[in-house]
Design goal:
33% of the residues lie in helices and 25% in strands. By secondary structure, the chain is of the alpha+beta class. The protein has an eight-stranded mixed sheet with strand order 5-4-3-6-7-1-2-8, with helices on one face.
């Protein structure tokens, strides 16, 4: 019995892959289960394999669900892997979950003769961490924030409003020395200017008076 060693790589994460060994007589459904187990995905969604040529052009489809069967489409549980291997370096594309559209490239890397009594399929190499199957969505547990905690977080608009209120409504008796420092300087400057104006007026009055006195003499 021949043993196939195939490398399964995420299409969008080429540095994450799994090497799986499987008997040539086993089905694509068993291969499908082994792939999902090796990457930690659940088995709740539809899936398909596509037989590809050396240029990754899709050919025959092997589907998981009977309701997806059409002319020329095969069923995983009834199709042995050996039935679709036409090349020592045979390639496949595996698509899981039509909505999320997880896509994987699969390439035969070795064909061996079975020895011993190992259990197949088996993942013999795991490289890289698989991405999370489900991304957080609005309203999911991963994105829900405690409303009480959220209320305690100051927002930029709230901070601006508070600063404005404190600047405009703060009672004078509660103002600090720092707050009133500018006001005191302004008042002193105003008082000095007023004293200068009064002194100038007095000088002018004296000059005018002196002028009148000379005229009388």
């Amino acid at each position: 019995m021949a043993i196939y060693r195939l490398r399964i790589s995420f299409e969008e994460y080429e540095d994450v892959y799994r090497d799986i060994e499987i008997r040539s007589s086993q089905t694509f459904e068993e291969f499908h289960d082994a792939i999902l187990t090796s990457i930690g995905f659940d088995k709740k969604h539809a899936a398909s394999f596509f037989v590809c040529d050396s240029q990754w052009r899709k050919g025959t489809e092997i589907t998981l669900l009977e309701e997806d069967l059409e002319d020329g489409v095969r069923l995983m549980k009834k199709t042995k892997i050996s039935a679709c291997v036409e090349d020592p370096y045979q390639q496949f594309i595996y698509v899981y979950d039509k909505i999320a559209a997880w896509s994987f490239t699969i390439q035969m890397i070795k064909i061996m003769k079975e020895e011993g009594s190992s259990t197949y399929p088996v993942c013999i190499k795991s490289f890289g961490t698989a991405p999370k199957q489900y991304k957080p969505t609005p309203g999911s547990k991963e994105t829900i924030i405690d409303p009480l905690a959220a209320a305690a977080i100051p927002h930029e608009d709230d901070v601006d409003d508070e600063a404005y209120r404190m600047a405009t409504d703060k009672p004078e008796e509660l103002l600090t020395d720092e707050d009133t420092a500018g006001f005191s300087d302004d008042e002193n400057d105003g008082n000095e200017n007023q004293d200068e104006e009064e002194n100038n007026d007095e000088v002018n009055d004296e000059e005018d008076f002196g002028g009148y006195a000379d005229d009388e003499h």
